[in-house]
Amino acid sequence: MTSYSIRSAAHRQPQQPRWQSRIFVTAASLLLSLLAGCRAPQHVQLTVSVASSLTGTIEPLESAYRQQHPEVEFRNNFGSSGVLARQIEQGAPVDLFLSAAAQPVNELIAKGMVAAGQSGILLSNHLVLIAPTNSSLSSVAQLNAVEVRRVAIGDPQSVPVGQYAMQSLQFAKLAEAIRGKLVFAKDARQVLAYVETGNADAGFVYATDAASSIAERALRVERLLRALRIAHLAARMPARISGGERQRAAIARCLAMEPEALLFDEPFAALDPHLRRSTEEQLRETLRSYRGAVLFVTHDMEEAFRFCSGLMVLDCGRTIASGPRQELFQNPGSIVAARLTGCKNIAAASRIDASHLRVEAWECTLVAPRAIGAEIAALGYRSHHFRFQQQAVGENVFPCWLMETSEAPHEMTLYLRLHKSQRPGDAYHLQADLPREAWLQLRDRPQPWSIQIVPERILLLAE
Q1: Are 91 and 113 in contact (CB under 8 A)?
Q2: Which of 72, 94, 123 is the last residue of a domain?
Q3: Does one domain contain both 10 and 140?
Q4: Stretch 28-53: mean pLDDT, rounded?
Q5: Beta bridge partners of 210
Q6: Is residue 349 scored above 90 in pLDDT?
Q7: What is the pLDDT of residues 149-195, one digit of tens each?
Q8: Among residues 123, 157, 178, which one ends one of the domains?
Q9: Are residues 463 and 364 in the same domain?
Q10: DSSP string spanning 16-78?
């Protein structure tokens, strides 16, 4: 990760004004003062829209307030001031708005959405120029140098710190000269990220953002190292740690950057089973507070089901199924999607009528869970959904014989043949997975066993 140093936009050019950002508070100032005088405290939830540059400021203020008023709960919505103002215009239920500039507040007042008497200046800030510590940049004037390829600023259309940056560049007569170098960010924190990661050679942010980011980054790295159980490795060189430790270090490195999106490609592949599960749990816990998008690539369907709320199934580069995880597992829709989501029992099927289908490979006719369409090509049945009965009762119940088993620490896989016992050259019909406790109860029962293919669990599949 590239570190950076702070170079004030004013220090090198005394004639240039030190642009000040004033933080305006609106809408709920009166409500907060009234809460302080409540005699019978009741739980109150306040929705607060906060300029991203105030992330490090608002949280300690709220924490101090809650110590005296534990009945108050804050729900923060961070973003650029302009975007937050538009959300309020569109009816977002906001109790308190902390803007990094006067313009968004004045526009809300002009539209009658905030009373003029309910706003005021709460905090002020300064604009600074940041650059990597190894940079030769020493003044704003040097932004026009050839070695400076990209300069990050907030989007002037919606981000106050971007507007102040453009004013500073215009004052220095550089706005047009470096326009092709400008990289627009959604907020000040993204400007910091661009410079930290080397995606920009310099950037304009608030002084408090630059100062707090250094301390926050150190704390964030320390917290991630502890969470992923690699704090004791912090001083070691990569060549002196194992493959699994490198995997966890890579995850921590990605999270420490706080990017807009994260791509995990088989992130637990190099870990042993115990460490794999514990690292997965730690990562899930860490990502609960992450506000960006996460794309998780895996061939382990159980891992995908545990980790992801939405799934997309790809085959040869094509999306063949997508949706909420529960819905996708219950109705994959096609043979390929069923196979890729871990269905172990798939066989060609033909429609007999609206409620019955024939499966020649299993030598049986089955009652379907719903009306069967003409597109039916196969059925699928997940190996954990079979029911073994003491007596043959219900639909789709058949006698079966055990052909062989495959043992795992906590479950047993059974390979079964329907209708008659095994003869030389016979192949199994079904694969069933049972918890070890259920297998211990089943194994001593005389065969044939009665097995049910539950109609509601049948997957109707198209090609």
Answers
A1: no
A2: 123
A3: yes
A4: 61
A5: none
A6: yes
A7: 999 999 998 888 899 899 999 999 999 999 999 999 988 888 988 88
A8: 123
A9: yes
A10: S---EEEEEEESSHHHHHHHHT-SS---EEEEEEEEGGGHHHHHHHHHHHHHH-TTEEEEEEE
> Stretch 223-234: mean pLDDT, rounded?
81
Pull the structure tokens for residue 165: 């940056």
256 and 368 in a single domain? The answer is no
Q: Counting beta carbons within 10 angstroms of the beta carbon of residue 270, is it exposed (0 to 12), middle (13 to 18) or buried (19 or more)?
A: middle
Q: Please, which pLDDT band fits residue 429 given cuts at 50, 70 and 90? A: very high
The angle, 0 to 180 degrees and rounded to 10, between the axes of the packed helices 243-256 and 273-287 is 0
| Strand order through the sheet with 350-353 | 350-353, 356-359, 364-367
CATH of the domain at 164: 3.40.190.10
Residue 43 CA to residue 122 CA, distance in Å, equals 26
Assess whether 185 and 265 both reside in one domain.
no
Q: Give the N- to C-terminal CA distance of the chain in Å, as an integer.
A: 48
Q: What is the pLDDT of residue 457?
A: 92
Domain contains 112: yes
Residue written as token pair 């708005």: 97
CA Rg value for the chain: 31
In which residue are the tokens 């990094």 written? 100
Place of tokens 């097995």: 451
pLDDT exceeds 90 at position 113: no
Q: By three-state DSSP, how is residue 5 classified?
A: strand
Return d(Cα 371, Cα 395) in angstroms, integer: 16
Q: 456 and 359, same structural domain?
A: yes
Whether 98 has a pLDDT exceeding 90, the answer reads no
Categorize the per-residue pLDDT at 57 as very low, low, confident or very high, splitting at 50, 70 and 90: confident
| Residues 27 and 11 both lie in one domain | no
State the greatest distance between any 2 C-alpha atoms of the chain, in Å, as a whole number.
Answer: 97
Q: What is the pLDDT of residue 346?
A: 95
Residue 170: per-residue pLDDT: 93
Q: How many domains does the chain have?
A: 4
Domain assignment present for 445: yes
Residue 364 structural domain: 343-463
Query: Which alpha helices (H) appear in 69-206, and where do they start and end?
Result: 81-89, 102-110, 160-171, 188-196
